[in-house]
Specification:
Helices cover 34% and strands 25% of the residues. The protein folds into five domains: 125 residues, 3-Layer(aba) Sandwich (Rossmann fold); 155 residues, Topoisomerase I, domain 2; 114 residues, Topoisomerase I, domain 3 (Distorted Sandwich), CATH 2.70.20.10; 127 residues, Topoisomerase I, domain 4; 48 residues, no CATH class. The chain starts with a strand and ends with a helix. A six-stranded antiparallel β-barrel has the order 8-9-15-14-11-16. Strands 19-20-21-22 form a four-stranded antiparallel β-sheet, with no helix packed on it. It has a four-stranded antiparallel β-sheet with strand order 23-24-25-26, with no helix packed on it. The radius of gyration is 31 Å and the shape is globular. Helix 3 packs across helix 5, helix 5 runs antiparallel to helix 15 and helix 5 runs parallel beside helix 16. The C terminus is likely disordered. It has 701 residues and is α+β, with helices and mostly antiparallel strands.
């Protein structure tokens, strides 16, 4: 009886696939890579066309021994690693260790871990794709040259433990540049005028637009109070008439299915998941979940993809499902999405989608953990909605003329919900303009004019979602690099997360400035994006990886030599505080950790005392009268407590403010996100609540 050996990367994947195949198949896991460049040395022969010196990864001896033993018994061997460059490279290394020819039909791949997909792949083995291996190898060698040549320099010139990298250094620079923008931002004043009008029984708002000059509409930007007062004086006792009414319809198309990047962004915004957590849970859903009625099966397709392609079978089954469950009007019959470079996506990968559309999230909820359910539901709803009809809105635009000045009001009303029946876009609601009857030339009554002062806002710091979107838009990195890049820059203490937004540390700024001065290409976003394109050319067989590396290294080696000679030893002076260490009496110094600044004794390692830096608010504790201070939980989440802790146990997740509740005199807190903050009373029996006046807050700054 013929025996077949199938090798995958992970034990979970091996377990799932093993249940699909018969007794003639044995499925084993390599547990990731089996060979890599050595950690203790560069591992690249620069003078010999950058030949890599691969070694067996430490600790993989028993795994390799077992794989070799099983390979000797097998009549056929199939390498079923992931369907990407990394997976292709792992198969190539496995072929080398097991003494298999890379030209033999030994490589199989599948985009989803289902019985049908695996059976289909087994029937279509192919040789190893050396172009994909070369692209991964080129990336690995480039990253090794940058990391192992610049990092020791940083160690000698600044401090041990630092690192540089093609993607990570550009990412840190983006965060540093954004912080500079914010620090250097100068708010500019501007004004708006809102009119509140009556038309019959309807009341509606319209905003000042500008001037009508000989039938030509001219937009007027209001910069000062004097300009506003001049307009208000002109409008005194003027009549207001409907100048123009335009009605129409507009379509709102569904969002495309998820790619790795958009899944990470949405999981961050909607579920509060970090990129690392999102990828970990997505990997579980991909590799297989034990469902009570079906057994173990992969619930979603491969999770590392920048493609929006959907298989024809998936399009058909999804549209059949929509037709049956929502009705004919919600089905498009099939929708094909295009990639960013134009044209229909025809690459090997698919978008992230459910492996079976009939596995409705609520029907399998009891087989999933809470987080698995949340992420699967997000993927399932997004994918089904991507194949549904557009939402349709009725639109109306009303222009009001008073003398020479124009006001505009516009709004829309949903006529057909389409994909939004299933998928909540999370965007702001459409502005409705309810006017039962209005005719051009008709007079409307002005109720009041409201002038409002505003100030331009600085750009926001990067969140995980916006940082990933920026990296993707710039073409920096690939789907598999986003999560590890963010983990690296946090662990190196180049950046910290404050309230879910990235902020560079002094160390991050210092390293970035040094790299900018001596290694401009390493932190240049255009150069890094161009390098990604060149590696894509290698994957397509259009370019040699050796040539890519050589072109880079010829310039890199020159600036490296200059940097070695010119950069002086940099001392990072620790900020000494007046806080005394209660264990040894030394003045404590400010250190940076993963979650920000903290106090540490300079006597380390003899004295290992540390304590948090407490930022005091100008608010008294409602329980004991002590000062309220800002603290951090073990997971880095900010909260507020009493400075007299542990004697006083007052605690609040929401930020207390100095102002007291005008209704009951109790403490008020700020709740919500930075763009939607509510001031609310902490007394449960009090219903006082208001939106924060951002204009006043900006003016006070």
């Amino acid at each position: 009886m013929q025996k077949n050996l199938v090798i995958v990367e992970s034990p979970a994947k091996a377990k799932t696939i093993g249940k699909f195949l018969g007794k003639n198949y044995k499925v084993k896991a390599s547990v990731g890579h089996v060979r890599d460049l050595p950690k203790s040395s560069l591992g690249i022969d620069i003078d010999n066309n950058f030949e890599p010196k691969y070694i067996t990864i430490r600790g993989k001896g028993p795994v390799i021994k077992e794989l070799k033993s099983e390979a000797k018994k097998a009549d056929k061997i199939f390498l079923a690693t992931d369907p990407d460059r990394e997976g292709e490279a792992i198969s190539w290394h496995l072929a080398h260790i097991l003494e298999l020819s890379e030209d033999d039909l030994i490589r199989i791949e599948f985009n989803e871990i289902t019985k049908e997909a695996v059976a289909k792949a087994i029937k279509k083995p192919r040789p190893i794709n050396k172009d994909l291996v070369d692209a991964q190898q080129g990336r690995r060698i480039l990253d090794r040259l940058v990391g192992y040549k610049i990092s020791p320099l940083l160690w000698r010139k600044i401090r041990k433990g630092l690192s540089a990298g093609r993607v990570q250094s550009v990412t840190v620079k983006l965060i540093c540049d954004r912080e500079k923008e914010i620090e250097n931002f100068i708010p500019e004043e501007y004004w708006s005028i809102k009119g509140i009008f009556n038309s019959g029984n309807d009341e509606f708002e319209a905003n000042f637009y500008g001037e009508l000059d000989n039938k030509k509409e001219i937009k007027i930007d209001l910069k000062t109070k004097e300009e506003v007062d001049e307009i208000l004086n002109y409008l005194k006792d003027k009549k207001y008439n409907i100048h123009e009414v335009k009605t129409g319809t507009k379509k709102r198309n569904p969002y495309p299915p998820y790619t790795t990047s958009t899944l990470q962004q949405d999981a961050s915004k909607r579920l509060g998941f970090s990129t690392k957590k999102t990828m970990m849970i997505a990997q579980q859903l991909y590799e297989g979940i034990d469902l009570k009625k079906e057994g173990t099966v992969g619930l979603i397709t491969y999770i590392r993809t920048d493609s929006m392609r959907i298989s024809e079978d998936a399009i058909k089954s999804t549209n059949d499902f929509i037709y049956s469950n929502y009705g004919k009007e919600y089905s498009t019959g099939g929708r094909v999405y295009k990639n960013k470079k134009g044209g229909e996506v025809q690459d090997a990968h698919e978008a992230i989608r459910p492996t079976s559309i009939v596995r409705i999230p609520d029907n399998i909820k009891e087989s999933l953990t809470k987080d698995q359910y949340k992420l699967y539901k997000l993927i399932w709803e997004r994918f089904v909605a991507s194949q549904m009809s557009p939402a349709i809105y009725e639109t109306i635009t009303v222009k009001i003329l008073s003398g020479k000045y124009l006001f505009r009001a516009s709004g829309s009303k949903m006529k057909f919900d389409g994909f939004m029946k299933l998928y909540d876009s999370g965007d702001k609601n459409e502005n409705e303009l309810n006017i039962s009857s209005i005719n051009e030339g008709a007079e409307v009554k002005l109720k009041k004019l409201e002038p409002n002062q505003h100030f331009t806002q600085p750009p926001a710091q990067y969140s995980e979602a916006t940082l990933i979107k920026t990296l993707e838009d710039l073409g920096i990195g690939r789907p598999s690099t986003y999560a590890p890049t963010i983990s690296t820059i946090l662990s190196r203490e180049y950046v910290i997360l404050q309230n879910k937004y990235f902020k560079p540390t002094e160390l991050g700024i210092l390293v970035t400035e040094l790299l900018e001065e001596y290694f401009k290409d390493i932190v240049d976003k255009e150069f890094t994006a161009a390098m990604e394109d060149r590696l894509d050319d290698v994957a397509d067989g259009k370019y040699s990886w050796v040539k890519v590396v050589d072109e880079f290294y010829s310039d890199f080696s020159k600036v490296l030599k200059i940097a070695e000679e010119e950069i002086e030893k940099i001392e990072i002076k620790e900020e000494v505080t007046d806080v005394l260490c209660e264990k040894c009496g030394r003045n404590m110094v400010v250190k940076y950790g993963r979650y920000g600044k903290f106090l540490a004794c300079p006597g380390y390692p003899e004295c290992k005392n540390t304590k948090p830096i407490l930022q005091e608010l100008n608010v008294n504790c409602p329980l004991c009268g002590g000062k309220v201070v800002e603290r951090k939980s073990k997971k880095g989440r900010r909260f507020y407590g009493c400075s007299n802790y542990p004697k006083c146990n007052f605690v609040s997740w929401d930020e207390p403010i100095e102002e007291k509740c005008p209704k009951c005199g109790n403490m008020l807190v700020r709740k919500g996100t930075r763009n939607n903050i509510t001031i609310k009373c902490t007394e449960k029996t009090c219903d006082y609540e208001r939106k924060e006046d951002k204009t006043k807050k900006q003016k006070n700054k």
